Every structure is written in structure tokens, then in C-alpha cells.
Amino acid sequence: MFSLTGKAIVVTGGGRGIGRGIARACARAGADVVITGRSPEPLARTAAELAAIGAEHLVVPGDITALGAIDEIVSAAQERFGTIAGWVNNAGSANTADVGPMIEIDEGQWDRVVDLNFKWTFFAMQAAARAMANDGGSIVNITSRSGSQPGPMMAQYGAAKAGVDNLTATAAVEWGHLGIRVNAIAPGVVLTEESSSMSSAARRRRQVETVPLQRLGHVDDIGPLAVYLLSDEAAWISGSVIQATGGSRIPVGLLTYLYHKNKDIEV
């Protein structure tokens, strides 16, 4: 079950974190995996893991915040594997410098976060759909629980992910007649190399306290769900945003906000 054998799957942001975990999971399910991202070194590490699994794979370094780069990803994938059966829009983030109180966010902070997480997700979805128009396929967007919950200290990130949730549902309606399914995964806090380096042990403990399963997520918690949505077994699933949060219903941004406010009060 949940086989991706014979399917070419594109994973954006495939060199790190959740994208790297999804690429591995797709490879284990038999997919031909195309990984793309801005930095060649992380892509090379992921490629080595895919090779060790025995998966056919292709590395296409590139920045998805440009239409030309997205077109190059599509062309390279089609040249190597023929058709594109699945596309995972994982690339997206918010740098520490762009996080802060809503009343202080400036235009640059807004544009950097919203462009990467919303605008370019749209154009990558569009490119994927055009490539799948003749044969159908599955698009999976990696959104965030911040898209459906208040996001203190990350207002523009949550707004962008809410937009991705809406695009997911809208695309499922518009492209369904083409045989294209569109779904999204909304992870909670997932530990990656990057997030671990930016988060103190005390902060992680506060986050764990909000999760009924009493642990934070791992990248390998998300990969199998992506494989399911990409597989033929999910043929009747489209337009869904699936939460993968360990059961948490408390916005993590609220903890950060309260932490800063309490520090202010103590002072």
C-alpha cells in the first residue's frame, strides 16, 4: 500500500528539515524524487540519502522565488522522468529577523515572509498544475497550524499560511476536472536542525507542555502523511488541510508572546 513506484515527485526545499524527510519517505515508497532548493550543499546531503535508499533522483538547485527557476524545475523533471505525478510545496519559512509584534512589522518583513510562503507557493502550484494537466497528479502544500490559529509574533506568517489553506481548497475545485488533487499538511512544531539551533531547551519544554502526545514533531512524522496524499490510495482526498500537531490546540506563538510580556512585567 501507499506505493509511489513509477511516480516522479518534486519536493521544493528538499535539502533540509521537513522537505528532506518527505524526500526520504517518497524514496522509500518507490518514487523517482526531484529535490530543489537554494543551497547546493544540503541538497547534496539529501541526494546521498536518496542514493543509499536506492531511489532514482534528480537535484535541481534553484530559487523558487523566480518564475524562471520554477520553469527550470519543471523542465528538468520532465526531461529526466517524463511526467510529474506529484509536487510538494515545502519551501517556506520565517527568519528570526522577521518575527515580532504585529504593531511593529514593517513592509520589508511583511514582503519577505508573505512572498516566500504565499506568492511563490501559488506560482509553484500553477506550474505543477500545468505540468499535470494531461495526466493528472497530486499537489501537497506544506502549510502550518498558524494558518488556522492566532499567530502572535508571527502575524504575516500565519496570514500567508491561511492564504495557502484557501489556495489549496480553491485549486482542488478548479483543477479537479483535470484529475489533479490538491491537499495540504499543517504541521505543529517540528524539530529540525535549524529549529533546534534557534530554540532554547526551556522554550522547547514550554512547547512540549502544550502537546497531548508530550513530544514535539520529527520530520519523519510528516513524510508518511505526504506519501499517503501523493499515492493512489488517497484518490478520493482533495481540498483537505490535515493537521499534524500531536493533538495540540494552543498556538505556539502565544507562548512566545506571553514569555515576552511576562519579561516586560517583571522588569
List keywords for this structure.
267 residues; alpha/beta; Rossmann fold; seven-stranded parallel beta sheet; two-stranded parallel ribbon; 9 helices; globular
Protein described:
The chain has a single domain (8-266), classed as NAD(P)-binding Rossmann-like Domain (Rossmann fold, 3-Layer(aba) Sandwich). With 267 residues, the protein is α/β, with parallel strands linked by helices. Helix 1 (17-28) links the parallel strand 1 and strand 2 (32-37). The chain has nine helices and nine strands. Helix 1 crosses helix 8 (219-230), helix 3 (67-81) runs parallel beside helix 4 (107-132) and helix 4 (107-132) runs parallel beside helix 5. The chain has a seven-stranded parallel β-sheet, sandwiched between helices.
Précis, in short:
The protein is an alpha/beta fold. The chain is built from nine helices and nine strands.
Secondary structure layout:
Blueprint: E1 8-12, H1 17-28, E2 32-37, H2 40-53, E3 57-61, H3 67-81, E4 86-89, H4 107-132, E5 137-142, H5 155-175, E6 180-187, E7 190-191, H6 193-198, H7 201-208, E8 217-218, H8 219-230, E9 241-244, H9 252-266
Parallel strand pairs: 1-2, 1-4, 2-3, 4-5, 5-6, 6-9, 7-8
Helix pairs in contact: 1-2, 1-8, 3-4, 4-5
